[in-house]
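Continuing the series of single-chain predictions for the mutant panel. This is the parent chain; the variants come on the following pages.
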Amino acid sequence: MEIRVSVQAAPKDGASWLELARGVEHGGFHALYAADHPGTAPSPFVALGAAAAVTERVELGTCVVNSGVWEPLALASAVATLDVLSNGRAVLGVGAGHTPAEWTTTGRAFPSARQRVSRMIELADVTTRLLDGETTSYRGEYFTLADAVLSDPRPVRDHVPLLVGGNGGRVLRFAGREADIVGITGLGNTLADGHSHGVDWSPDAVRRTVETVRSASGHRDRRPELEALVQMVVVTDDAAGSARDLVSFVEGATVEDLLHSPFAWIGTVEEIATKLREGAAALGIRRYVIRPSAMPDVRLILDALAGG
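Parent structure:
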């Protein structure tokens, strides 16, 4: 079975960003992702467009855009442009936008969770239609379009994959019905700083997440792929000891959660490889996203997976 690992990053300067993109390309990773945090992170599409110029194989996508600050045609145009520049490697990743400041600093009131998810669903629906070449008329709670068309640029591939990231039941059900990739994190409620989260990485919570997606996607010929966002990678001969040292930094997690969760990789290279094989077999999780700092260790894990 194939395990795919992608890298989520943000540029600090041009030279190191292009070097990172080349490292993702040549290191056996599947995709390079950029997040969308208006005001606190670089523009994802500008960064990914630059990465497209120095890569040929890896997919390039947003993980994920804040749906509260995008309009469908503008987002579709940005994604289609990236697909043209990368010769058909763009991925559209959307999320509901949990950080209050990202709404208020762009002139929008911070909505309720229901409203944020509703806007994300509408944005994903309309943007996907435009990317697929439909003449789109739409009247929803947040967007109204009359005969909208994305005539230029047109994506290179017939269908740009849709990645939906989140953990709430409504987001997961929508993702199960419509997404090509479902990004799961195990993150819980937003903490007092307005950005960080507590977590629920218990085995039962992970199983519930997977089952929610599976249940919603049961009617589809091709079910979406599950992709877990890895929060820590620690290669060590003492997994239990390392988990005990780290658990105080992860609000809501236990030592057992850290040892068994798909969101934390702790152990020897072979122990982690075995964990990923077991996760693929039991849960169907075959895609992961890591941070750049973990790339050297994860290359060793990928080698172990390829050899086993």
